Amino acid sequence: MPTTRFAPYAPQLLSVLRIMAGLLFLAHGTQKLLGFPMGGGAPAAMSLGWFAGVIELITGTLIALGLFTRPAAFLASGTMAFAYFIGHAPRDTYPVNNGGDAAILFCFVFLYLAAAGAGPWSVDAARRR
To answer: What transmembrane ranges does the database entry give (predicted)?
Structure first.
């Protein structure tokens, strides 16, 4: 059965999903705040873009490490919902046209991580042991 072949690896794959999503989110923060990789100028301090970059940098790092994963993922999920409705939805009805498909995907992956936790390969799991 192909549906059960990978079931034993579900906890580890949860950790892989968390690590990759966290690293990708962290990259958005480094691009906004540090200009890496190939970003423009940093947003003005205390602007919406600056706050988004700070949240992406901090929560992306925490999520990638699996440290305080549930609250970090919940905050990141809400940030992406806000980003979608403020920055993307006004441009067009369809996410593929308004550039918001990544924001929606991040939102729901982080919402899932807020519910599911970090998985076995995480600082959170090591702290519980």
So the answer is: 45-65, 72-90, 102-123
Domain membership flag for residue 101: yes
- 59 and 114 Cβ atoms separated by less than 8 Å: no
**Could you tell me how many residues make up the chain?**
129
Q: Which domain holds residue 87?
A: 10-123
3-25: average pLDDT = 95
Dmax over Cα atoms in the chain, in whole Å? 54
Residue 21 falls within a domain, yes or no?
yes
Residue of 75, 100, 106 lying closest to 86 (CA atoms): 100
| pLDDT (tens digit per residue) in 35-45 | 988 877 788 99
Give every CB contact of residue 79 below 8 A, 6+ residues apart in sequence. Answer: 52, 55, 56, 59
Q: Give the pLDDT band of residue 1 (cuts 50, 70, 90).
A: low
| pLDDT tens string 66-86 | 999 999 999 999 999 999 999
